[in-house]
Specification:
alpha+beta; 2 helices
């Protein structure tokens, strides 16, 4: 969702910076467009980093000694994030 919002910000910023030829005394629309384009790029980068972070997995390995007969027991757990979430 953040990647889509970043693309939206970039598109609106590009429209304001390059396609709108309205002159206002109190605001410069091309500057607002450039700011929105920069915010869109930052949002896309943050969204991509967070998406890559979701796909990491955690592996835990524990080794214990069974007190009843002295055998060594190894238990392995693996948890992987669901990429659909």
């Amino acid at each position: 969702m953040s990647i889509g919002f970043g693309i939206f910000l970039f598109a609106v910023g590009a429209i304001l910076a390059f396609a709108v030829n309205v002159s206002l005394d109190w605001i410069e629309l091309s500057t607002v467009g450039y700011i929105l384009m920069a915010a869109g790029i930052v949002t896309v980068i943050i969204g991509a980093v967070l998406m890559a972070r979701k796909r990491s997995s955690v592996t835990t390995q524990r080794t214990q000694v069974d007190p009843a007969n002295g055998d060594q027991v190894t238990r392995r757990e693996s948890v992987a994030s669901d990429p659909i979430e």
